[in-house]
Amino acid sequence: MDVLRVDDRLTDEERMVRDTVRAFTAEKIAPRMAGWFEDGTFPARELAPELGRLGLLGMHLRGYGCAGMSAVAYGVACRELEAADSGLRSFVSVQGSLAMAAIHKYGSEEQKNEWLPRMAAGEAIGCFGLTEPDRGSDPGDMLTRARRSGSRGGAPAERREPDRRALPGGVGGRPPTATRDGGDWVLNGTKMWITNGSVADVAVVWARTDDGIRGFLVPAGTPGFTASDIHRKLSLRASVTSELVLDDVRLPADAMLPGVKGLKGPLGCLSEARYGILWGAVGAGRSCYEAAVDYARTREQFGKPIGAFQLTQEKLAWMEVALGQAGLVALHIGRLKDEGEVTPQQVSFGKLANVRAALDVARQARTILGANGITLEYPVIRHMNNLESVLTYEGTQEVHLLTLGKAVTGLDAFR
């Protein structure tokens, strides 16, 4: 059903990745995913070692046990993972493109050697704490603070109730405090909508310091650090989404990521994650499209398959066009990334365009399946609900529109 035959432009290695991940999801994920979604569970601890053995965790990073594969190979893997479910791709993205990428880009050699080999193997899980309850699209205004112990005293500020109206993909905050003596760091704040939060062995937490925004590695079990799951979600149900609370969390001086200062640190990691999303969305859309084509060929009304009616064929044709265009965008941006020429604006273009295309495909597929389209017997409503969150996390549609608007006009509309 790939009229443009986009995959013909892949290398042998990239097709090997495609086939390996597709076989894994068909055997290990697809038979169980509807149940996980319905139950609101995701067996992260069970799947992480299997994903590690396949080399999918941090697969685009080099050294420290990572596979060091191309950007396009990583994108193809994300496409096949999200064809199974956005929650599965989100787990791999947060592990590799956010938590591991932050350590790989900005960490010390000691931090890299301590965490990356275990995370690549799926023996340790990471999460990424940036978004705050009231600071989703404006992370530069974060309230989470880190102070040197002894810099100022004071009791912890009263914890504010998180705003749960936001969608998954970020973290939360509250005003700072400090303690006394020494060179340790003391962190206070709240992070919200954190994928992998409650199952993570280490959290990469971004906090404001007197010297600018810095990243910190917070191991699970550190006194004052808690993670609690967010329930009653109707999207990304097969994904662990958590709130992180830091209440006078004391960390040694070497817990800080030394390689970056300022908002460019977390934003650099977000660009990596957005790249995986622009591929993953193609997989989610493809899954819906394939279900719609199969259904249209076999479902009969008025004495013939509904796929024989012109209106149904029009829907399927537009879905084919949308996915073909999205696949070309993903491949082009991937090749640019492998050549070291990709820009954040191009990644925003891909994330915006491809997620919108996939969501439109999912909605059209649902109409072809009729009432059957809202059941978990088919993947369509699950992908459609998930894509409503994918449209918002790692940068909302509005953020990416303004990013492109600034690139076009040279004028900043954010402030």
TrEMBL record:
Sorted alphabetically, the keyword list is: FAD, Flavoprotein, Oxidoreductase, Transit peptide
Positions with biased composition (Basic and acidic residues): 157-166
Q: Where is this region: Disordered?
A: 130-184
- Domain Acyl-CoA dehydrogenase/oxidase N-terminal intervals: 11-123
Cofactor(s) in the UniProt record: FAD
InterPro entries according to UniProt? Acyl-CoA_Oxase/DH_mid-dom, Acyl-CoA_Oxase/DH_mid-dom_sf, AcylCo_DH-like_C, AcylCo_DH/oxidase_C, AcylCoA_DH/ox_N, AcylCoA_DH/ox_N_sf, AcylCoA_DH/oxidase_NM_dom_sf, Glutaryl-CoA_DH_mitochondrial
* Ranges where the Acyl-CoA oxidase/dehydrogenase middle domain occurs: 177-249
Is Transit peptide a UniProt keyword of this protein?
yes
Q: Specify the Acyl-CoA dehydrogenase/oxidase C-terminal domain's residue ranges.
A: 262-408
The reply on keyword Calcium is no
Q: One of this protein's Pfam families, by short name?
A: Acyl-CoA_dh_N
What family does this belong to?
A: Belongs to the acyl-CoA dehydrogenase family.
- PANTHER family assigned: GLUTARYL-COA DEHYDROGENASE, MITOCHONDRIAL
Protein name per the record = Acyl-CoA dehydrogenase family protein
Q: Which organism is it from?
A: Actinomadura monticuli
